Amino acid sequence: MALARAVCVLAAVLGCVLAKQAAPHPMNWFRGHNTELIIGNGKKIARDVESQWFEQLVDHFDPLNHDTWQQLYYVNDQWFNGSGPVFFYFNGEAPLSPSAVTSDYFVTELAQRYGALLVTHEHRYYGQSFPVADLATKNMKYLSTEQALADAASFQQWMMDNYALDDNQWVIMGGSYSGFLATAYRIKYPHLVVAAYSSSGVVLPIEDYSQYWEVINQDYTWDSKCYKNLKNVSDSVAQLWAQGKSGREELRQMFGICTELSESDEADFWYTVSGPSAGAAQYGYTADICSVLNVAQTPLKGWAFLFTGMGTKFAGIDWAVSCIDIYWKQAEANTTLYKPYTDARTWLWQTCTEFGWFQTQTTIDLWSPLINLDYYLDACSVMFEKDMAPIVQNKITTYGGLKPESSKIVSCAGLADPWHPACQLSTYKSDEPVIYIEAHDASHCKDMSAPSSADSDEMKNARKTVEHYLDEWLLP
Q1: What is d(CA 124, CA 122) in angstroms, rounded to the nearest whole number?
Q2: Which residues pair with 87 in a beta bridge?
Q3: What is the pTM of this model?
Q4: How far apart are CA 243 and CA 218, in angstroms?
Q5: CB 358 within 8 A of CB 373
Q6: Which DSSP letter does residue 337 get?
Q7: Which residues touch 196 (CB under 8 Å, ≥6 apart)?
């Protein structure tokens, strides 16, 4: 970065213009750090763990394909007493971090309570674990729920055989998408795990997921002044856009957009500028947003300040040398594979083929109804060069949707989480208890994060209930 600034100074002296580099798009600011955001501010409490690699099959369902690849995994035996359970954390749609087995959060606290071994592996097509050489559309066919579940089963069986863990009780755990995977794993491989813990597990695929923004609206209305200010931001953006070229240029400079904005860019601009408000609500940062908006000189200036601040906090953006490319559809059409991979192409493939969860907006939402289903389906077409739409009913039929047929699965969902409409909210089987946490701090996967004295009573009781069921299922 120091070199880049020096070049900028030199460019200014020479009277020429140096183009800024495109920074991560706001859609990736939160998504790329799922593990850390779920864990929260949990400090490192365990010794260092080394990166290890497992030889995994490319295709578990083609008996003629014997190709393999290397899958990253971590093991933490710091609290393992030899006879205790194995807690298998199913990493989701982001690079795997050692913090999944070393940081202070609810899973590591459970490991200490039960004398458990902690194990986690990296999901195929994320981070450093890839069965293909690049991300061309033809190479995306090995990315599916079923391949990911088979990866986990193959890895677990290898661990059991090679580390004498076949007599230990295995519990699968996960949050968000990997919470769904934990539930699906218990359904599909009940002989491998005795129980599952799912936090904010999105078990219900929904193509047109307008419910996401309905919950975000709710979260901001808990501070009525803040909600009014955020609506003012949206109205101000619309007014500036309506002024034509001069208004668009003011918005471009305000939000650090790389290129001149044209009328046809309106939907992409709205998608870009609104994104951080969703991520902030999802992970429980609405109070931080409101503390700035409620005292800003104008709501719009406050939002521009927050927008750049979140870019720095969550994506490490240096705005002196960086800008935002709003053309995310074209950017994610890039098939180049680098490691660790942090872009969204692989997750977008899963949403375009399996789950949907397209976070559409309507006229009653905070931002713009231009972010509709057609907008997302067009993104699928642009990125993967073919018309496509997810067949969500396949996953519902296979794994049961809101009524997964299994046993010994404890699930949590939270009122403040915009993903809770895709989660189980009530118990329909006594041996598949669901804990719906009706509290303002019940954000995405909050029950799995590091416990705090500031947590609501409802959150504290939810964790106690999870422990109650694990005691019932694991202890003699």
Answers
A1: 6
A2: 118, 171
A3: 0.92
A4: 31
A5: yes
A6: -
A7: 171, 172, 173, 182, 183, 185, 186, 406, 408, 409, 410
- Letter for the amino acid at 154? S
Looking at residue 428, its pLDDT comes to 87
352: tokens are 């375009």
Backbone angles phi, psi at 360, to 5 degrees: -80, 155
Token output for 431: 């041996």
Q: Tokens in use for 64? A: 């003629």
Asked if residue 340 has a cis previous peptide bond (ω within 30° of 0), the answer is yes
Rounded Cα gap, residues 116 and 51, in angstroms: 20
Of 92-106, 257-271, 308-322, the range with the lowest mean pLDDT is 308-322
Which tops the pLDDT comparison, 78 or 9?
Answer: 78
Q: What is the dihedral of CA 414, 419, 421, 424, to 10 degrees?
A: -60
Here the tokens at position 275 are: 């994104």
Q: Side-chain half-sphere of 17: how many Cα atoms within 13 Å? A: 2
Q: Taking the mean position of all CA atoms in its chain, how far away is CA 162?
A: 32
Contact yes or no for 171/86 (Cβ under 8 A)? yes
Answer positive or negative: Cα dihedral of 176, 182, 183, 184: positive
Gyration radius of the chain over CA positions: 23
234 CA to centre of own chain: 25
Q: Between the CA atoms of 124, 130, 133 and 135, what dihedral angle is there, to the nearest 10 degrees?
A: 40
User: Are 100 and 33 spatial neighbours (Cβ–Cβ below 8 Å)?
Assistant: no
Judge contact between 451 and 476, C-beta under 8 A: no
* pLDDT > 80? residue 73: yes
**Residue whose pair of structure tokens reads 């053309």 in the numeric block:** 327
